[in-house]
Design goal:
Elements (H helix, E strand, L loop, with lengths): L5 H14 L18 H14 L3 H8 L3 H13 L2 H16 L6 E10 L8 E2 L7 E9 L5 E8 L4 H14 L8 E4 L6 H10 L2 E4 L4 E2 L8 E2 L9 H11 L2 H4 L6 H27 L9
Parallel strand pairs: 1-5, 5-6
Antiparallel strand pairs: 1-3, 2-3, 3-4, 7-8
Length: 287
């Protein structure tokens, strides 16, 4: 996993450091123990995201207590550090390489949530065990540009409007001409939604019952993956993060923060590979 590679971690940490809220010492005598280094805490948070290990295990690995890691994560989450971080990463990618917004793809991805909590539900792909999912839109190159977490039993079609609203908030919707979606989005309501937004939706039709065949049989539409393979690849990038693949957070805001950080690492890797490919040794992610 390249997220913990020093070439990737260093620029992300530099940006996080600039976003951290000022530390306010409220101890009346000022004689408490020295504050744990913020970089060490951020490395622990990143290590948990990558490996999917518990806070206790990661704390032992990085030499920071479990409670300290949790407090820092919550403190930075309340300050909006992770949401600001991913916005800066997207902006840097758009400036350096350029988002391809004329064609996008939208899809969901379901994963485990064994600890349950708010925003989880019975997974339709895991025998009804607790799970969560995200709905994500990617540009034509597969770069995530909008995402939202939800319970595993939430139909993908119900999350399309929220995903489009996030695209609109970021100012991307006006540039989108075509959207590619799989057969799970094949409904009149979804097609009408895209018609209202002025986006040409390419949605694979559901399989239909065929008369004359055995009852209940369906004719599968043998349609190639086409332009949707980029979103499938983006989902696989995020599924490599252990904490997303098997999430133990209890609140949706915590899962969203984990998504924000994971996508930041994905974009940073793309920027560094772009630098290495084109030989710009002075390039440094501008966020």
């Amino acid at each position: 996993m390249l997220a913990l590679d020093p070439r990737v971690f260093a620029p992300v940490w530099e940006t996080v450091e600039s976003l951290l809220p000022p530390v306010i010492d409220r101890h009346p005598l000022g004689c408490h123990r020295p504050r744990v280094d913020a970089r060490q805490c951020f490395f622990g948070i990143a290590a948990r995201l990558v490996t999917g290990s518990s806070w206790e295990t990661v704390g032992r690995l990085v030499g920071v207590s479990e409670s300290t890691l949790l407090r820092r994560r919550n403190e930075w989450q309340r300050a909006g550090v992770f949401s600001q971080l991913v916005e800066l990463a997207l902006s840097a990618y758009d400036q350096m390489i350029g988002l391809q917004l004329d064609e996008i793809a939208i899809d969901g991805s379901v994963h485990k949530a064994p600890m349950g909590g708010e925003g989880t539900g019975p997974s339709p792909v895991d025998r009804g065990k607790r799970g969560w999912k995200w709905s994500m839109a990617s540009d034509a190159a597969g770069i995530p540009i909008a995402w939202t977490p939800a319970a595993a039993n939430t139909p993908d079609a119900q999350l399309v409007e929220d995903t489009l609203a996030i695209l609109d908030t970021r100012g991307f919707e006006v540039e989108i001409e075509t959207a590619h979606l799989d057969r799970g989005y094949d409904s009149v309501a979804i097609r009408d939604l895209f018609t209202e937004t002025g986006i040409d939706a390419h949605i694979v039709h559901r399989a239909r019952h065929v008369r004359g065949r055995k009852y209940g049989s369906r004719a599968r539409n043998k349609i190639p993956l086409g332009r949707r393979w980029k979103i499938e690849r983006a989902n696989s990038w995020l599924s490599n993060f252990g904490q997303l693949r098997r999430n133990t957070d209890r609140l949706p805001i915590q899962r969203e923060a984990a998504l924000d950080l994971a996508i930041t690492f994905v974009i940073t890797v793309k920027l560094i590979k772009w630098r290495d490919r084109y030989g710009n040794t002075t390039f440094k992610p501008a966020y």
